[in-house]
Every structure is written in structure tokens, then in C-alpha cells.
Amino acid sequence: MTSNGKPLLEVDGLVMRYQTKRGQVSAIEDVTFTLHHGESLGLVGESGCGKTSVAMSLMGLAADNARYMSGEIRLEGENLLALNEDEMRRRRWKSISMVFQGAMNSWNPVYRVGDQIREAMDLHIQPKLSEAAAKSRMARLFEMVGLNPSMLVRFPHEFSGGMRQRAVIAMALSCDPKLIIADEPTTALDVIVQDQILKELKKIQDQLGMALIYISHDIAVIAEVTDTIGVMYAGKLVEYGSTLEVFHRPRHPYAYLLLSSTPSITGPRRKLAPLEGEPPNLLDPPPGCRFHPRCPFVTDQCRTEDPPFVDIAPGHKVACWNWQQVPVTIGASA
Ligand SMILES: Nc1ncnc2c1ncn2[C@@H]1O[C@H](COP(=O)(O)OP(=O)(O)O)[C@@H](O)[C@H]1O
Ligand code: SF4
Ligand SMILES: [Mg+2]
After folding, report:
1. Over the chain, what is the mean pLDDT?
2. How distant is the alpha carbon of residue 10 from its chain centre?
3. 131-144 helix and 191-208 helix, angle to the nearest 10 degrees
4. Which residue's alpha carbon is nearest to atom 1 within ligand 2?
5. Are 230 and 304 found together in one domain?
């Protein structure tokens, strides 16, 4: 997976809170994970669990009211949180790039798509590419994401939603990043286009050998493109392991319920318990295990003591006092 054995990315005990007039929003609470070169990680969880906050933190683009209380984000050993904006700007897009949530709607309507990609490349690639080199690079990128290079001279309104999203992916690839983060990149698209783009993204990732963090609220989508899955709940990472393990044998109650309430895309799934209730307000998260008000496996300990995130098998971590009580599910038939 890696040339020198050193991880590409280490998120280590990260705690981030948004400061608001109503108090602190506990959006990232002690999140720890490691990503190696070329690896693909899926981050999954309900809306509001902190997925975008983690992604924006990796990019050094969290909102102004974000405060890092502790922890580190290390890219090839270097703590990004210790860099100033200038140093971070030099790494952004080249080392880590991102397809933002809703990005397909952020094209400037009055400029040709190719010119907008060219502008991004000029800003981030030093020395600037020649006209010819830039053109051939953009054509290659378009082909890679399944767009005809002739579309480069077209305006955004001449693209369908799926095509606009493909062009966003081309733009994110333009500086040849080591890691690309895709935040709900296909959520707004219809299922067929979504599936095509997913497959293409996976293919590109394999071809280019870059690492991918794929964010979605849909665990079935995540399972299609990733080697590893991280399940987030209320700002915490509650399960982390190989896609095979987490998708087919989730050990955390939340992951288990999330899966059981996801219709299978590959075949019939055994009927399991439904996921009831709403995620907590992160201005005032529940004490103990944040999932306890919704958890069918809750015990007294859960209400007061936060379970540590521990290895339950090599490479498989869970934060739950009672993970052994969770039935071993037979996931999708595939
Ligand atoms: N700038 C902000 N100020 C205050 N709260 C925020 C801000 N951005 C996000 N939040 C809150 O942080 C939590 C995590 O949000 P987010 O990272 O967007 O989750 P997700 O991407 O999983 O939907 C949510 O409770 C959200 O309302
Ligand atoms: S620690 Fe307790 S409440 Fe939390 S997920 Fe595990 S069993 Fe449920
Ligand atoms: Mg989000």
C-alpha cells in the first residue's frame, strides 16, 4: 500500500468545537484514524455527525468559529494544525484536494468550464503549465472522468448535473493530489448516474494510486468504493475497520442499526431492528456514550461512562461497552 511504510494521514485524538452564541458545538470528539497511501476510506453517519467538519479540518478550511482543542492531523508526519495559512495553502489541492458537498452547483455560470479549471491549476501548480501542457492535461482529466474534452469550452449550463459533478472531480484531480476527499459527491444525482460516477472514481483512484476519503450518509454506497469504513456518530468515530468486516459484520450497535435500516443493493437482507429517534444536539451531547438514548443494548454503565475506542480484532476498532452483545449479522447476500 505504501512506498516507505509511513502512513499518508494520521488523525490523532482530534477534538474540534464550534464556538457559537448558544455554546460550544462538539462536532469532532476525539477522532483517531490512519490512512495509508492509495487506501480508500469511507466516512459514514447520519447528517450532522461531523463528517464535513472532519473533511474541512483536513483541508484547513474549517469555519472561522472552529476551535481545535486537542489532537493532531499529520500528513506524512507533518502536523497540519501547526501550519500557518500560507504553509497550508501550499499543501491544499496539491497534497490534499476535495470535492465539496454541493460543489457541482458552484460553477461560475459566466465562464467556460475549462477556463475555470485552468484558473485553479494556475493558482496551485508552480511553475505554471504552458498553454499546451495545460490543455492536454485538462483533456486527459476530462477523459478520465468520462467527459468528452470538447466540453472544456462549454459553459456550466450546457452540462447535466452528472457532467458538472464529473467536471468538479476533474478539477479536484488537476493538481495530482495524494489524497482526495469526496464529500457526498453523488448525493444529489439519480441512482444510475451516481453509480457510474462511483465506479469511475474508484477506477481513477486505482489508476492514479491516490488515497480517497469518501463521505456519505449511505453505507451501501460507501461499501462499493472503499477498503475501510469509519462510522461516525455525534462527532465521534464509533467503528473503524475493513469494509468487509464493518459492512457485513458491524459490531457497534449504531453501525448495526444503520446497516439494518439500509436497503441492500445486492440482495435481500435479514430484517433487523430499526434505527429510531434522532441524533443528539451537539451543543449538549448526552453524557456517557453519546448513542445511549437510542441504543437497544444500553446498560447503566453506558449512561455515565464514555466507552473507549479499542481494538476488538486486528485493524477493527469499536467504541462500545457491549459490542459482544451485538448479533453477528448476515449482510447482503453478495
Ligand atoms: N460553522 C458552524 N458553527 C456551528 N455549528 C456548526 C458549524 N458547522 C457545522 N456545525 C454543526 O456541527 C455538527 C457537525 O456538522 P457537519 O460536520 O456538517 O456534519 P455532517 O457533514 O456529518 O452532516 C452539526 O451539529 C452542525 O450543525
Ligand atoms: S456503549 Fe452502550 S449505549 Fe453505547 S453503543 Fe454500546 S451498548 Fe449502546
Ligand atoms: Mg456534510
Report:
1. 92
2. 14
3. 120
4. 320
5. yes
